[in-house]
Amino acid sequence: MVRFILVVCLLLCLLPATGCKTPEELNNIGIVVAVALDRDAASGDILVTSEVIRPAALDKKGARNQEVVDIVTGRGSTIFEAVRNTTQILDRINFYAHTKVIIVDETLAKEGLTPLLDFFVRGRQLRGYTLLCIAKQGQAKDILNVKTGVDVIPAIYLRDTIKNTKYNNKAVVSSVVDYYRDFLKEGNCSVLGVVEVAPSEESGSGDKQKTGAEQVKSSGAAVFKKDRLAGYLDETETQGLNWLVKELPNGMVTLPSRLEPGKLISLEIESSKTSIKPEYREGKLCFVIQVDTELTLVEQQGKKKILAPKAMLDYLGGVREDAEREIGDSISRTILKTQNEFDCDVVGFASALKQKEPAIWRTVADNWEEVFPTVDHELHVQVHIVGTALKQGFF
Predict the structure, then answer these.
(1) Please, are residues 193 and 100 in contact by the beta-carbon 8 Å criterion?
(2) Euclidean distance between CA atoms 128 and 122, whole angstroms
(3) Is the pLDDT of residue 311 over 70?
(4) Which residues span the domain enclosing 124?
(5) Is the four-CA dihedral 251, 253, 254, 257 of positive or negative sign?
(6) Mean pLDDT of all residues belonging to the chain
(7) Which of 220, 18, 210 is nearest to 125 (CA)?
(8) Are the C-beta atoms of residues 176 and 128 closer than 8 Å to each other?
(9) Pairing of strands 101-105, 93-95
(10) How far apart are CA 382 and CA 329, in angstroms?
(11) Which helix or strand (DSSP H or E) is residue 131 part of?
(12) Which of 177, 212, 233 is at the close of a domain?
């Protein structure tokens, strides 16, 4: 009941403040669309970097060739002090009701995330759906300094890049509310998205080849034990996590081709459903995982064709087996890493146990961090190939 009340209070705090501002107030605010939080290694200060919209630059009648955003950094002993200190160099007061994403660097994330968010949540401006992610191998403010993508506002480019994980299932998307929901959930650990600055692929040809500008890449997941960064899941492990905790509406699976060595095939996820059932076996807790997914074969490298219907059915049967093995390996790899390296349940075992065996959960709830690394899992993956998406006579 106490946790329920805390969640309700949090959600109420994250609701946008009501009421209209006067024109004088509107002229004094700076609309912040992205925030980066860093620890300055030299002074120990907290750095708050804000991406602030320039309204005149978005006006078609306004000045041309003007930057659409200002990047402003304030420093202080607390988040509030750093934010207020930006008024020394910016002619506006930061306003967070339209913030799309908050990025936190690794150093601050390892110290504890919840105290950093207190100012934003307590201030009642920030929306709960604001994305929250970790900057890997670099400062968070470096992410805001990347100006690329199609959208003229870098924060929109950043937000949409993070949300594009639904097309590849190699990363996670998490909001402020998602973080607090997982943080307050008994027995559960939080997972946040990860972004990093990566060089663009080289463009051009021959002697004229040149390196493009830097870009932001959304890849993998950050695992939090309580509210401190414990480590990362790579792309394969993040795919395994997404199979466990999400009903994937999209994404992909890439496999070696059975037709030609060295070639690959790609399958698109059409739908996916996962169930986790706890059982006691010989006095030991075991979680039975059932994954049912539908895939479409969308790409086949190589030139070899299959014309006979029987050969086609046999081939698709082999693809199905390969996909089941690939999915199962990524899931098991994720479970074992979270058990052996993090001692941290991000895969949903605690939730399944509380829901389906509440009596058993009550006996292990107080020491779940010690129990989780010792539990077994049994995995069943069932793949259905529902289409080949190929022209007649080509395959």
Answers:
(1) no
(2) 12
(3) yes
(4) 1-233
(5) negative
(6) 85
(7) 18
(8) yes
(9) unpaired
(10) 13
(11) strand 131-135
(12) 233
